[in-house]
Write a structure and sequence with these properties.
153 residues, 2,3-Dihydroxybiphenyl 1,2-Dioxygenase, domain 1, 2 domains, four-stranded mixed β-sheet, 2 helices, 18% helix, 29% strand
Length: 153
């Protein structure tokens, strides 16, 4: 059996590269302390915490419809943070930057101790940050998969 070691990177296509680069520079580099690997007029890529996030301009012919989390493809992506205090600090940093969270820091039913904040980038791509203590649901799942809780993921 192959044992994955996380998601190495995610690449996002954005409608306004300059606007999105400013947002992701703030989030990834200034707030999360990730290292900038590439930064030019068409590519912004940060690495750290065993992951990477890359943004590039979307094809203008394909970007008119904008992002919709219910289309085929990405619904949202989520950073795993190290403490509930980190989630609170991110929630405060979002508000200080003028970003209104979709869901302010709160507990969720998806795993024991699940505590998260949900917000959007300039294109409306949903980003979540979560803290789950210990092994989360890995300590709960026994012989059969769990039943998903009600509500939106």
């Amino acid at each position: 059996m192959i044992d994955p070691n996380g998601i190495a990177h995610i690449q996002l296509s954005v409608t306004d590269f300059v606007r999105s680069r400013a947002f992701y520079h703030w989030l990834l580099h200034e707030t999360f302390g990730m290292t900038i690997q590439y930064d030019n007029e068409t590519t912004f890529y940060c690495i750290g915490g065993r992951t990477g996030v890359l943004i590039r301009p979307a094809d203008p012919a394909l970007s008119q419809a904008g992002f919709n989390q219910w289309r085929v493809g990405l619904h949202h992506f989520c950073f795993r943070l190290r403490s509930q205090a980190d989630i609170e600090a991110l929630g405060s940093a979002l508000i200080a930057r003028g970003i209104v969270p979709i869901r302010k820091p709160e507990e969720g039913p998806w795993a024991p101790g699940y505590y998260s904040v949900l917000f959007e980038d300039p294109d409306g791509i949903r980003i979540e940050a979560v803290f789950i203590p210990g092994r989360g649901n890995l300590d709960v799942i026994k012989d059969t998969p769990l039943t998903p809780p009600g509500g939106e993921f």
